[in-house]
Amino acid sequence: MTVSAHIGYVGRSIPRLEDDRLLRGAGRFVDDVDVPGQLWMRVVRSPFAHARIVSVDVSAARAAPGVVAVLGGEDVREVEPIPLRLEWPGYELEPFLQPVLARDKVRYVGEPVAVVVAETQYGAEDAADLVEVELDPLQVVLDARDGIDPDAEALRDDRSNEVVLMQKGYGDVEAAFAKAAHVVSAEFITGRHTGVPMETRGLVADYDPGRGRMTIWGATLVTHYHRRVLSRLLGLSLNQIEYRPTDSGGSFGVRGDFFPEDFLVAYLAYKLGRPVKWTEDRAEHLVATNHARQQRYEIHGAFDAEGRLLGVRTEIWHDKGAYLRPTGVTVAEITLGILPGPYRLPAYDAKLHVVMTNKTPIGAYRAPGRYQTTFARERLLDIAAAKIGIDPVTIRRRNLISPDEIPWEPGLVYAGESFLLDSGDFTGMLDKSLEESGYHEWEQEAVRLRSEGRLVGNGIGYWIDKSGLGVYETAGIEVDPSGKVRVLIGGASTGQGIETVMAQIAADVLSVSPQQIEVVYGDTNLIPDGVGSWSSRSTVIGGSAVQAAAEATVAKARRLAGQFLEVAEEDLEVVEGRVFVRGSPTRGMSFGEIAAQNDTVTAMRLDEDPGLGARKIFVDKHMNYPYGVNLVQVEIDPETGGIEVRRAFCSAECGKAINPMLVAGQAAGGVAQGLGGALLEEFVYDEDGHPKATSFMDYLLPTALEVPPIKTLLLEDAPTPTNPLGAKGMGETGIIGMGAAVGNAIDDALQRAATVHTLPVTPERMLALLDTPATE
Amino acid sequence: MTLEPVSIEINGATYTRTIEPRMLLSDFIRHEAHLTGTHVGCEHGVCGACTIQLDGKPVRSCLLLAVQADGHAVRTVEALAEPGADLHPLQQAFHEEHALQCGFCTPGFLMTLEPFIRETPLDAVDERSIRETLAGNLCRCTGYHNIVSAVRVAAERAHATGAGATR
Amino acid sequence: MKPAPFAYDRAGSVEETLALLAEHGDEAKVLAGGQSLVPLLNFRLARPERLIDINEVQGLDRIDANGSLRIGALTRQATIEGSTEIRERVPLLHEAITYVAHPQIRNRGTIGGSVAHADPSAELPATFVALDAAFHIRSASGMRTVLAREMFVTHLTTVMRPDELLVEVEVPFPAPGTGSAFVEFARRHGDFALAGTAVLVGLADDGTCSRASIALLAAGPVPVRAVAAEQALLGHPLDDVVARDAAAVAVKDVEPLADIHGGSDYRRRTLEALVRRALLLAASRVTEERR
């Protein structure tokens, strides 16, 4: 059977199909959705980090004008806590899950304590101010390491604040350290920060009591999962609940969880029989939406005389905030699994404490675990290089896994599978990155500027990523009698270009133009099942499902055309959405005509499904590992501690880039976020657990003046065998190596290794580092 | 609280309402005029997503009370291109250069940049001046790199067609 | 983040404003540019019972350059930024304004609003202190003039009474040959300064410093005139050593307010470096102007 040759949209940088409406301001984000008769919900949040709830007095709020209902924790006491979405065997996590409204105790500033529903948005906020919550403050736990101390205040009665102690490793670490020529030890801290998309969260729930039907807008990322959880918590059957798609103003991993508000909005709509709308404001967002990244490392590396790794031992404290979010301990799993990176590490012993603290719960944020481990590992390598007397490039060359060592599977299991590098040319990537960036010129420039007394330095952050978690994804193709094609995917749009990428994949197989294709996502009526967009899986797993569905659609088109034209399938060709007899192009049918002709009665006769289309599921056998290098050049002002990133470069091995322009765009966005985490962004708390970064004056996002021009190199040297596209997920590139590269560049600027150990490097911290005499 | 009558011109059409004086202009635009292209990102004037033009000048609509726009002319992103008609050259440049991803911040950027391109002589459009103009708008998706390219492209085209400023 | 309810008056004239302030001053706030006030309203950190909107008041946004620079309080910061006359005759003011937030904010923010808001980290109050500006203030019962140095009482507080309205800022033109510099350090461009200074210097024919004005922002609860440092400069050539010493004197007793962006010691130290840089920069500009 000849399948039409893929005509080449895949691999091309075509401009995006979704741009038009977004540019015109015609996108439909959740706050743009209004339902007639809707009420507005406002959440009352705990002002204390840790306290017993004495009483919640809603009487004044209930009496306020326009208020329809006010609920406290007692009113929803029987509702289960929010369940996990990702579970790994061997961990008892139930006691740490979050209730939909606080009961008995509050455990972080910002925790939902009550909800108000009123006729207007402004009125709901007025009424929320009238809810009186009486709290009995308790001691707070603000540090993960301190939180394990037996004398530390327990967030949960009779239970340690340590959720789990994880351990992973392989090889003989004792022997490695015993024979090491050099042992390098360091402590590293990555500060608390997170995705902070430009759009805050929001939800609209419309319950039709007559039909018993619940419709929800705004849960954009993993709608099928949300539907299952809501069904369970609310007691409605799955069939009674539908999620409708909206545009989404960025996720970066933080938008996808099931939050208390996801339940409360629906519950109120259900109880009141009126639509309920909730829009998170920015002050709320900064305390209520998942935080990320906060980890502390004690790490030791054993090296031989030439700087080759013999073993790594590490103990990590993972601050998880006050509750376990639905991702559970996934970030911890990934942290331990990904730390070795692309290096030949013969022995590894890693321990990680997941600890509850009285702060906003921590979830997943773009490349969770990778940003932090890369910082710790890459800094360790640079420190070792300095100690041993070799340069940072050399120590990496000596340790990067070489192509003939692939596949590399050291015997490390995490997130349910074995760490397996099935493809990769890591030294080749390093060489190409250094060349393409002009790193050698950067180094010469830095030497020259340093001789003039300026503090300029360069740094490397070599990273690997994992993509494609989440086992399977669904896709459907439907061809309309007009010839328009609809692609239905279980993934979601966070702004990453999924409508265009899926259209390119389908367009190639169907041999139609992407402009004829509409990509639909997030609609649980049209798409019965899906796993969503997270962990950089949409192109890899969703795209593979789309490809399979498109291939099945073409196969069906040929089958049907053979029947309708009464010719053998082998005599048919497919070009530009038309199936015709080879050599007689006028004897043919367009896809649309085939769809129209294959009506129900015809289909019954042919023993086919009506219309033209197919549904497929792609099962991903294994995660795949993109990799690449971040390079930065910084200059430090020694009098103010100000740090400028003068140059930034990032490379990424894509396997196969479906749309290189979009991949480069992801990388550039990641670089900017990584820069933010390295220099600007931090959630700081005072000693009573009150957050101090509660506005955009305190939580600083990089602007166009903090982010330099970004040079990107995309390679397709190592397609992965785990999916038919050969693609690796690119959603988390750009960001991973930035903390490491900035830290290493600062050390280089000072010509003093082992200086940077904590991110973000604020100006004040930079001056303190300059003051501190060099150690080691 | 006494309600105030207002008549606000938005994109050439006049919206007459009676509103609370505390209603923010961003909320008036979105919920009274139902022009949802203007987005709300922070409500304290930092992110720039809500940027519109008031009497021709880019300002934060979240820092204006709607009553203050009474009798004034507001222009929002919807004014750049008629529905169904071609994109404004600046929008077209954004499209070609992939200067948007989620699109939430984009209307604010467009409203800030449109006068910049119109009013800045081409020889004053460089990396630095573009980034200074952009610095009051936050984007979390793009890293700004392609936005800068789009501005350069749009400025060059505006100059070529005579639609840009000359010294 | 929506404001709490308030009563609203839109004043059509200065007289009407003053009458409203006389009646409601204690529970009212004047709404000018709103770029500082409205965020406070949105966070509900400010809950005035009444707002008196003066944006439609005529005659408060004139700029007059006869004899001295007189700027109406309602003049938008962007207007100052765009004024070539101000850039040429009071370059310090132009330079300072380019640091105020971002263009969209400056399109609405007013000169008078920034002064009345009295944020010690803001650019304009300290700049006016350096320039020895005078503030013309009116009330229903009369008019008075307050010198910049005497205007600021503490964090976010001026000497103005609740029934008073700032109507004009008067800035004496710097003497010919004055060099000036505005230097600040912030986490990001446009943010509030962690430390900053506005400086003017004049040199005598022998190249020694004949006059100096040094104002510090983010150096405490109000802008600070570093008088002792100014004195220390007189009669000396403005070289690196002299500038360094003067900077040390300037910050010796300041107590900058700490916040999450920097502690007090850090700010003082950074301020010292900036004062030195500003003095040298201002001195180098004297040479240019005297050519």
Note the topology.
The complex is a heterotrimer of chains A (776), B (167) and C (291).
Chain A: H1 19-23, E1 39-45, E2 51-57, H2 59-62, E3 67-72, E4 105-106, E5 112-118, H3 121-128, E6 132-137, H4 144-147, E7 162-170, H5 173-179, E8 182-190, E9 202-208, E10 213-217, H6 223-234, E11 241-244, H7 260-272, E12 276-279, H8 282-288, E13 295-303, E14 309-319, H9 330-338, E15 348-355, H10 370-388, H11 392-399, E16 413-414, E17 417-418, H12 426-437, H13 439-451, E18 455-464, E19 472-479, E20 485-489, H14 498-510, E21 517-521, H15 538-565, E22 572-575, E23 578-581, E24 584-590, H16 591-597, H17 600-606, E25 612-619, E26 627-636, E27 643-653, H18 660-679, E28 710-715, H19 738-750, E29 758-759, H20 763-771
Chain B: E1 4-10, E2 13-19, H1 25-32, E3 51-54, E4 57-60, E5 73-75, H2 89-97, H3 106-119, H4 127-134, H5 145-160
Helix pairs in contact in B: 2-5
Chain C: E1 7-10, H1 14-24, E2 28-31, H2 37-42, E3 50-53, E4 63-64, E5 68-72, H3 77-82, H4 84-89, H5 91-97, H6 103-106, H7 111-117, H8 123-130, E6 134-139, E7 142-147, H9 148-151, E8 152-154, E9 157-158, E10 165-172, E11 179-185, E12 195-203, E13 209-217, E14 224-225, H10 227-233, H11 240-251, H12 264-290
Parallel strand pairs in C: 1-3, 2-3
Antiparallel strand pairs in C: 4-5, 5-10, 6-7, 6-10, 8-9, 11-12, 12-13, 13-14
Helix pairs in contact in C: 5-8, 10-11, 11-12
